[in-house]
Design goal:
heterodimer; A: about 220 residues; alpha/beta; Rossmann fold; 4-stranded antiparallel β-sheet; 7 helices; B: about 450 residues; alpha+beta; 2 domains; 11-stranded mixed β-sheet; transmembrane helix (chain B); membrane (chain B); FtsX-like permease family protein (chain B); ABC3_permease_C (chain B); ABC-4/HrtB_transporter (chain B)
Chain lengths: ~220, ~450
């Protein structure tokens, strides 16, 4: 289920009180493909983590549809991510000793009994769609960077999320692998109703987005 | 107050069942915690992957736990093995009569062949003992000479049979120049030797140089210092020392009882065996006089073990303290090891894994290392006990057969339960870490 993102008066501060992010108003309609760019340290990833519910803001609200994740308990935010969000990271963050399918279906290990089969099936289908069907049983430690990132994408899709959040997904890839990943990201979000928000320095990725938001000094220029 | 029916039920159970129940109860906390923590999740393959990721570090951690547990287990098992071994070595010595002195010293001399200079019992005393209607065996134990590291003991053929049963090889001594050796004595059948006067460094080898004794038989193993001894007719010892041979003129060729009190030169100790158990007590009472001391080596040993019970308790406390220290070390180690996995755990939490799942992963990881280390520790303990028992047996000739028993398994079960309960702490700590900091680390 895709949801509109509404951010109001969001402020995230570091422990010592320094302001890391300030967003007066940000609206992202469901199904949009949004790129976020800006210089290093500008607050791009902090914005992504805030809208993923990975951090509790100092003030303001972050709401996906009618769910105000900024006011949820950590457990409820985790449940929200589990049910609605797929995450892709710059350096893949895979369990090297597990197979591609084991990584893609990792959510099955903590899902309810009733949904385990569906997650494993979705992970398998995701690997197939991303061209990794034959490698599903192999440990990812022998995979190339591009293959690893596609496994990470299959993992992000295994719970059929309405939202995909990607943090520098192409930064650790060569150009060819990066282009293929951008293709995959676009194909898996565009037309599917999924919202895609990707933090990146990659102009090729931004070219495939509906909209690109610049972040400067902790403030998105919207 | 325990209800009577419960006592009847409990003490009606076979001992092995009681032990097994205790063991299960000690493991129960770990089992219950495990069930509660892992319930409805499947963390095992993830935990296997985590362990494999840093396999050498984890293996080292398991080895450290195994060695610590093995030392604790080995310590307790060894102490029990030594206690049993010393008791077994004394069990053939029902009642010993000596000149008055220290019972412990006389027991060490008579049972464990640690000779001391003691006054001799005279022929009148021996005769009174041997003539007692309740006495089945009265054997002089005349020590003081040696050959190499073997004590040469003068006694009777009946004592040899009483001590070790039928000979394993050869025949019983039948003349003054014949000997029967213990199972581990370094003399073959047919070998001749000259006994030295005294024992150990103080032995004078040339005092009896005109004497030559020949080995004619070998005893079966007894698991005691007597396995290294050389047993000769007591008359042979007297003859070697230029003393009367215990028999009246005209009977000088006789070997063994009866002895003539007038020609009985003396003996440091007499082993007495009565037909009936109660008679032993009567004999002890009868021969506890101004001139003689009668004692049960088993009882003296028991007192000694009782006194050493404090030492045993200290050893047990040391074993427990060691385990507590190990537990603390395990926790500290786990805290460090879990930092290795901080990013992966943060990933799980970022993906939306419930805290309880992450908790179960960390706890299962810790419990797996602890459990594996504990099981390996039993193996280490078993190996250590085998090696140390062999060394103690070789050095003392007291057969120490230390094996692992329920007390050791209980120690391990207690250790596992306590440590896996304590492992909840690092699991809680893992949840308190900042997800984003760990993701970016």
């Amino acid at each position: 289920m895709s949801l509109d993102l509404v951010v109001r008066d969001l402020v995230v501060k570091a422990r010592e009180g320094r302001e890391l992010l300030s967003v007066e108003r940000l609206d992202i309609p469901a199904g949009s493909r949004i790129g976020i760019r800006g210089p290093s340290g500008a607050g791009k990833s902090t914005l992504l983590f805030a809208i993923a519910g990975l951090l509790r803001p100092s003030s303001g609200t972050v709401a996906w549809g009618d769910q105000r994740i900024s006011e949820m308990s950590p457990g409820d935010r985790a449940r929200f991510r589990r049910e609605n969000v797929g995450l892709v990271f710059q350096d893949f963050l895979l369990f090297e000793e597990l197979s591609a399918l084991g990584n893609a279906a990792i959510a099955a290990r903590y899902a309810s009994r009733s949904s385990r089969r569906a997650i494993i099936a979705a992970a398998g289908a995701g690997l197939e769609r991303l061209g990794l069907k034959k490698l599903g049983g192999r440990r990812v430690e022998s995979f190339s960077g591009g293959e690893r990132q596609r496994v990470a994408m299959a993992r992000a899709l295994a719970n059929d999320p309405g939202i995909i959040l990607a943090d520098e997904p192409t930064a650790s890839l060569d150009r060819t692998s990066a282009d293929r990943l951008i293709e995959d990201l676009s194909a898996l979000s565009g037309g599917s109703g999924r919202t895609l928000i990707a933090v990146s320095h990659d102009a090729a990725l931004h070219a495939r987005m509906d909209r690109v938001i610049d972040v400067v000094d902790g403030r998105p220029l919207v | 107050m325990v209800p009577e029916f419960w006592n009847e039920f409990w003490y009606g159970l076979p001992v092995t069942v009681q032990d097994a129940i205790w063991f299960a109860l000690l493991l129960l906390p770990a089992t219950l915690v495990g069930i509660v923590v892992v319930w409805s999740y499947r963390p095992f393959s993830l935990v296997s992957a985590m362990i494999w990721r840093y396999r050498w570090t984890n293996a080292l951690f398991v080895v450290l736990i195994a060695i610590s547990v093995g030392l604790g287990v080995g310590l307790i098992a060894q102490e029990r093995g030594i206690r049993k071994g010393t008791a077994r070595a004394a069990e053939k010595f029902d009642l010993v009569v000596t000149a008055p002195g220290s019972e412990v010293q006389m027991m060490l001399a008579t049972v464990y062949l640690q000779p001391v200079d003691v006054p001799l019992l005279d022929g009148r005393t021996y005769d009174a003992i041997a003539a007692n209607e309740n006495v089945a065996l009265a054997a002089p134990i005349a020590y003081g000479d040696s050959f190499g590291d073997s004590s040469v003991i003068g006694t009777t053929a009946a004592f040899v049979t009483h001590l070790a049963g039928d000979l394993a090889d050869g025949r019983m001594f039948a003349g003054l120049d014949e000997a029967v050796v213990g199972a581990r004595a370094g003399l073959d059948l047919g070998a001749s030797f000259t006994p030295a006067h005294g024992v150990g460094d103080a032995a004078e080898e040339d005092v009896h140089e005109s004497v030559s004794l020949t080995v004619v038989g070998r005893m079966a193993a007894t698991g005691s210092p007597w396995d290294r001894a050389i047993l000769v007719p007591v008359e042979s010892v007297w003859k070697v020392h230029g003393l009367p041979l215990g028999h009246a003129p005209g009977r000088e060729g006789q070997i063994g009882p009866p002895f003539d009190p007038a020609y009985f030169p003396g003996t440091p100790a007499i082993l007495v065996r009565a037909d009936q158990l109660w008679a032993n007590y009567a004999l002890r009472s009868e021969f506890t006089t101004e001139r003689t001391m009668a004692f049960f080596p088993g009882a003296v040993l028991s007192q000694l073990h009782g006194l050493l019970g404090d030492v045993r308790q200290v050893m047990s406390v040391m074993a427990v303290v060691t385990q507590v220290l190990v537990t603390a070390g395990v926790l500290a180690g786990l805290a460090v090891l879990i930092r290795l996995y901080a990013r992966r755990l943060a990933l799980l939490r970022a993906l939306g894994a419930p805290d309880r799942f992450v908790f179960s992963v960390v706890w299962t990881y810790a419990a797996t290392l602890i459990g594996t280390g504990a099981v390996a520790g039993i193996a280490v303990g078993l190996a250590a006990v085998g090696v140390i028992s062999g060394i103690v047996t070789a050095r003392t000739d007291i057969l120490v057969e230390a094996t692992l028993g329920w007390p050791e398994f209980d120690l391990v079960a207690g250790f596992v339960s306590i440590t896996v309960l304590m492992a909840l702490l690092p699991a809680f700590v893992a949840l308190s870490r900042d997800v984003i900091t760990d993701l970016r680390s």
